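<given_protein>
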Amino acid sequence: MIRALIIDDEPLARRGVRVCLRRAADVVVVGEAESGMVGLRMIETLRPDVVFLDIQMPAMDGFALLSAIDGDKPPLVVFLTAHDGYALQAFGVHAVDYVMKPIDDGRFDDALCAVRQRVRERQAHTSQVAATGHEFVAWDARLEAKRGGRTVWIGVDEIDWIQASGDYVTLHAGARLHMIHESMDGMERRLDPRRFARIHRSTIVAIDRVQGFSLLPTRDALVTLKGGAALRVSRRFRHRISLDGLCRL
């Protein structure tokens, strides 16, 4: 069971989240809090898997609460708010999702699907560490491309984003493009997930290149990179803009 905690200063909002969660047989609500301070104490005591968290609350808002959480395995967070101006900030603290009030059932279910995926990823990671006894993974530091019969090496630090191109992928590194014979799944396995996130079946972005994030009416999202590229984030992959290595969402 996924253990959920609801933190919102509005009783009707907390009730709305409970109603939405009743449809999920694999989720149990372990508590409710009417303020950030109370919610922080409940997180420390109850250790929920996920927190459905309001942003605007008196005394301690949602972002202040997150910054006050101790421990190396904080709960997953789904932000709830009536204001869309916090989306980029929510992206920056690695929230699983960002749901607008009044809550739409379909939109909430999308967020819950992302939570389930993240819980599975955490469980798989924990199992891997238990089996191997360590967390070390050797991610690629550079990638090999062919150009005119010669080999070119591209450092992963140079990459802004990666695009699927048939049987190849195209690396966008500033004004330069490099093509590698590799699948998107294969490329994703080679890159450190703390630094790169797959946001679409055909797109991977360097997380530190993201400077804008906005929600779209289609339930997808849009990220803007420092170089000016605007890339769509699909619902299927949106939770991946934040993984555990970054305290993810």
